[in-house]
Amino acid sequence: MTHRFLAAAAALALVPAALAQQAPPSPGEIVGAAPAADWVAVPPDDLLVMDLAPDRAGKDRRIVIQLMPAPFSQGWIGNIRKLAAAHWWDGMAVTRVQDNYVAQWGDPDGEDAAKAKPLPGGLATMPEHAYLVPAERLPLRDPAPGEAGEGRRDPYAASTGFFSGWPMAFDRDHRWPVHCYGAVGVGRNFSPDTGSGAELYAVIGHAPRHLDRNIALVGRVVSGIEHLSSLPRGTGALGFYENPAERVPIRAIRLASDLPPTEQPRFEYLSTESDSFARYSDARANRRDPFFIAPAGGADICNIPVPVRAAGAK
């Protein structure tokens, strides 16, 4: 079956011109009014739950990460599932917080073979070409007459759009996920190393799109990003903590499906193939609510964040 890959500009074209003549709702109001049928539940097996040590006030710090759907990054995501099942991250730490860039976690002794925690067996070693998905595995739909989606360029790709709720970029031959705020990727050393998934990072600053196609993206933070973005910045090179006492301990990382049913977080995202998302995309690109003087007339792919909410929220 051909997947529908909705380009951002094409989404804007779905909005009737008459809408601009009305007093349009804000993006948040559009999302709030989206019917239940426009929301897609995230399976618990696709949610990674990270619990940090409590903050200085004793408050819990939970971060929930949605793992990326097939066909993207599945080798690394398979490793992540095995690492979580083995409780490998328990007792690890946030080791790096670089301002306007990333927060990173893993084994503080990972670079020292004598001290590094052994990885579970059976982890896949992924090739660099797996950062991309060949076009024949994910065909684009043909644009409708008048749509601009077939050629919407940005500085990093021939075009951008959405696939199953995720921001993506594509060219004639390949598709790939992009680094937006909250994106979670796999730390690695120099090429040809691609990382195992044991070392992960989350984007906490301006979208570092130059990393696209150079690192495996495996998910996005859907809850608790503030627990990473508010951490003290590391003073070492690249924001690494120089003093071990500065590191933030990780209590546990589990798949939500491995938690007791009453403790499983549940989330849903606004379908990027819905009319509600098309209206939302248009509103993000053309703010017509009273505060704005000049609508931008367009939006970067990372400035159209896919709405995600706790299941049952309104």
Describe this structure as you would to a colleague.
It is a single chain. This protein has 314 residues and is α+β, with helices and mostly antiparallel strands. The protein is 13% helix and 24% strand. It is built from five helices and 16 strands. The strands form three sheets. The chain has an eight-stranded antiparallel beta barrel. Helix 2 (27-33) packs antiparallel against helix 5. The longest helix has 12 residues, at 74-85. Mean pLDDT is 89; it is low at 6-20 and 142-151.
Name the features.
314 residues, alpha+beta, 8-stranded antiparallel beta barrel, 24% strand
In short:
The protein has 314 residues and is an alpha+beta fold. It has 5 helices and 16 strands.
Describe the largest sheet: 8 strands, antiparallel, barrel
Rg is 20 Å
Q: How would you write the strand order of the largest sheet? A: 3-4-13-11-12-6-5-14
Please mark out the parts with pLDDT under 50 across 5 or more consecutive residues, or reply none. Answer: 6-20, 142-151
What is the chain-wise order of helices and strands?
Answer: EHHEEEHEEEEEEEEEHEEHE
Find the count of extended strands (DSSP E, 2+ residues). Answer: 16
Q: Helix count, per DSSP?
A: 5
Characterize the overall form. globular
Report helical residue fraction. 10-25%
Overall pLDDT confidence? 89
What would you call the structural class?
Answer: alpha+beta
% residues in beta strands: 15-25%
N-C termini distance? 33 Å
